[in-house]
Amino acid sequence: MCGKQQAKNGKACGYLRQVESEAEMTIFMKVTRDEYELPVAVADSKSELARMVGVRPSSVWHALERGWKKSTYVAVEVDDEND
């Protein structure tokens, strides 16, 4: 868990916070549970994704943070380079 002091100091705590700080942009998706993992909903934040699919933000956060194998929530790093 991230402590209040760490959050105030701006230190990264937890894997997802580290990924977000290193990536140009991270999008969050709910995908289908089959082999294709097609996107059901796509959002810029975990809380926005939670609102879109009708669950609590903590449900999305826990699924992403704990890396559950059968989770339907995915964080994807996207580069904004136009090469």
Which key phrases capture this entry?
83 residues, disordered N terminus, single chain, alpha+beta, three-stranded antiparallel sheet
Outline the structure in words.
- It is built from four helices and three strands, in the order ααββααβ.
- With about 80 residues, it is of the alpha+beta class.
- It has one domain.
- The chain has a three-stranded antiparallel beta sheet.
- Strand 1 and strand 2 form a beta hairpin.
- Helix 3 packs across helix 4.
- It is globular.
- The termini are far apart.
SSE topology sketch:
Layout: H1 4-9, H2 15-22, E1 25-31, E2 39-43, H3 46-53, H4 57-66, E3 73-78
Antiparallel strand pairs: 1-2, 1-3
How many domains? 1
Terminal CA distance reads: 39 Å
Given as residue ranges, the uncertain stretches (5+ residues, pLDDT < 50) are 3-18
Strand order of the largest sheet: 2-1-3
Mean pLDDT, as a whole number?
Answer: 79
Share of residues in helices: 25-40%
Largest sheet: 3 strands, antiparallel
Main structural class: alpha+beta
Written as H for each helix and E for each strand, in order along the chain, the element string is: HHEEHHE
Q: What is the rounded Rg?
A: 14 Å
Summed up, the helix count is 4
Q: What's the total number of strands? A: 3
The coarse overall form would be globular
User: Hey, roughly how much beta strand do the residues contain?
Assistant: 15-25%
